[in-house]
Design a protein that fits this description.
alpha/beta; Rossmann fold; 18 helices; four-stranded parallel β-sheet; 435 residues; six-stranded parallel β-sheet; 3 domains
Length: 435
């Protein structure tokens, strides 16, 4: 991971245990020091079927550091299989186990003949953050478990759909469900593995899909490419989470062309959704167009996904103007050019400057020096709340850490999600008006 000087926006790779946790019926087995699960599970309302408080863990101590922890891991797996009613067990290694060289692969593979499947993934925090760990875990599950179902016949119109990193993105589940609805509205069948009603059974259907659609700037790309290589599943990598009419309509047309969906149906769905979207905007046109409520100049301090998608929505649909934007998810160097490209292709010839940084203190110093020509609009995480107060700006929390807000099933994706985001923005602005 890059060095974090202040205000962490992500966690270590082991925190991607939440990716496992978000697959109903799956549970991680941690080969790590004591307390890792509870320390890393700091999001609200994310326990799912298995709470992080009951994750099996070897709780590596000085003894294992000296003599090795492989046998303790073996015993932990045995006991987990005996007492936990899960459908899939995923062994994850933390920093200590990797440093002392424990071979979790050989231990996990000793359980291949068990009734319940056991797979493994190395997720030491010193090798990456939980965005990267998410990809490692999916790749491991696809390669070791999903491969057993590689011979299932292809199902016409079936799409594997992946989007935001589970639980790291507060809106991950609502966004995923909205993307499902959008794809289903143009005649496609969706296969997702996260959240209620999905799970291990849907993992088994992955090789049957004709297509994989990844909606993400970079997180999850390697595991998606693996599906293309291993099962011949055609991959559409769509780098922008669609928010609002412009981007969502573009998304539907791109998907329709990629999958061969009925063009007339796609256009019909777009017309209907755009009509609803602009109807609601027109109802509140007097408020939205009043520049004294929101100055129309904004900055975003967030993961690449939201920096791109929020900027595109506010510029392309709402006519806002971006100040410098800040990507804080430690985007790998080889993807930064693509992120910048997306932010240089806004409507009206507008181009947004972007900085990749993990130093929240330095970011805030820059924002304090910006001239917003009015009341600033700052969209980011809970770290930006104090900053917004200091510069007398409007603040909307859209990304981790989200401490003072609970997201149950809300979403910001699609046409309807954009309206929700506008509600958040103008509610924050109206709350600051002096009566």
């Amino acid at each position: 991971m890059a060095k974090i000087l202040d205000q962490a926006r992500y966690k270590c790779a082991l925190a991607a245990m939440q990716t496992v946790q978000s697959i109903p019926g799956a549970i991680p087995i941690l080969h790590s020091g004591p307390g890792c699960a509870s320390k890393l599970n700091d999001n609200n309302g994310t326990s799912g079927k298995f709470s992080a408080n009951i994750f099996p863990c070897t709780s590596i101590s000085e003894k294992e550091v000296v003599f090795g922890g492989a046998e303790k891991l073996r015993t932990t797996i045995q006991n987990a299989l005996r007492v936990i009613d899960a459908d899939l067990f995923v062994v994850l290694s933390g920093c200590t186990g990797e440093i002392i060289g424990d071979d979790i692969q050989s231990v996990a593979e000793d359980f291949q003949d068990e009734v319940k499947p056991v797979v493994w993934t190395k997720t030491p925090g010193f090798k990456g953050n939980n965005y990267i760990g998410h990809d490692w875990i999916l790749h491991g599950i696809f390669e070791q478990y999903v491969s057993k179902f590689a011979d299932v016949p292809k199902e016409k119109g079936l799409v594997n759909l992946f989007a935001g990193v589970p639980q790291q993105d507060p809106y991950w589940l609502g966004n995923l469900r909205e993307l499902e609805k959008l794809l289903q509205s143009i005649g496609l069948k969706t296969n997702t593995i996260f959240g209620f009603g999905r799970g291990v059974e849907n993992l088994q259907k992955i090789p049957a899909a004709e297509y994989t659609i990844l909606v993400s700037p970079w997180a999850g790309i390697e595991s998606a490419k693996y599906l293309e290589k291993a099962y011949g599943t055609k991959l559409l990598h769509y780098p922008t989470l669609p928010i609002g009419a412009t981007e969502t309509s573009k998304f539907l047309r791109t998907v329709g062309q990629f999958t061969g969906a009925d063009k007339e149906l796609v256009e019909s769905v777009i017309r209907e959704n755009e009509a609803h979207f602009f109807y609601y905007l027109e109802r509140y046109a007097d408020t939205i167009l009043e520049s004294r409520i929101v100055s129309k100049r904004f900055t975003v301090v967030s993961e690449a996904q939201y920096v791109i998608s929020v900027a595109k929505f506010l510029v392309n649909d709402m006519g806002f103007f971006p100040e410098k934007l800040f990507v804080v998810d430690d985007t790998p160097e080889n993807f930064r050019g693509e992120v910048e490209k997306e932010l240089k292709s806004l409507n009206y010839g507008i181009q947004a400057d972007v900085e990749f940084s993990t130093d929240g203190h330095a970011i805030h110093d820059q924002i304090r020096q910006m001239d917003f020509a009015g009341t600033p609009l700052i969209i980011g995480s809970n770290w930006e709340k104090v900053l917004a107060r200091d510069v007398k700006g409007h603040f909307v929390n859209i990304s981790y850490p989200m401490i003072e807000k609970i997201v149950i099933n809300s979403h910001v994706a699609g046409y309807s999600g954009a309206l929700y985001l506008l509600e958040e923005i103008y509610t924050a602005a109206l709350a600051m008006l002096k009566i």
